[in-house]
Amino acid sequence: MSSAKLEHVIIVGGGLGGLATALSFHYLFPRHNLTAPRITIYEREPTESSRINEGYTMAIRGDRVGGAVQALKTINQDLYNDIRSMAAPEGDKNVAMQFSFGVNCDLNPALKLNTSAGEDSFRIARFKLRNRLVKELKHFDESKIKLEWNSHVIKADYNKEKNKVNVELKDGRTNECDLLIVADGAHSSVRRYMCSEEKLNFQKCISLSCVTTIDDGESLPSPIKTSPLVGITGKGIGIFMATIDEKSFFWGVIYPSNEERPPPYKGSVMTKDEQEEFVNEVLTRTNGCLSNEFRSFVRKCDRERLCIVY
Fold it and tell me: Which partner for 14 in 43, 131, 153, 211 could form a disulfide, CB atoms 3.0-4.6 Å apart?
């Protein structure tokens, strides 16, 4: 497809992939003397803050395998500098990941996966990165990039005669574009519609996660000051911990299960009783296999940011 015909692009999903793609069009096309297309981003969530459950940090890697640092710098150096300033505490930059095994593994790393300290790599909370990309979109007029919240795309069909892609939203609205980019996650409604034969298989494990903010005068657990921690206990319970900033960190407890869980999956839509049942379940599942220190962090977690993933 030539750039002259690429007039309108629809991106389904306002997550990291969709937002970065939209910015790439409008930062990179002009550098090659091309006119960037008009872009519409449809995001099914109502506001940017609704993704607060994305509390865990992700790696922005500068090595050949990751390449995220280079990609951000290519999009816009000032954007990269700002995102870099929002990084989680780093500690030992030689340590990329820590692994632990045993009965009480959560705060006692047994294995460290090293990386080169010379690589410009860092970690950042997903929701901070996402909200910063949303902010960057606002530098462009809506005639160039328009982000529509609470807009759930459910269908997409190719019109061969017009050489256009038609999309339909859950509220009945329709739109058409020259190029459709589907980036609405693992539970994509568009993918289910277009590829109905493809099914996500339950992997027989469930993650119970949340974010804990420490009190004034307290310190983050020593091991996760340096890098994320992954572990598995003698009872087969998995643990993941990663810092968000100097006062908070993400944790997840993973357990095997033969059955899927019914909703609700987010603390923000749970009742107070459901939130407390969630916390008590984590405490019960980790009793005798994770330390009292970890369990104290569970008790102090932010109930609105509870999350169940399977």
Answer: 43
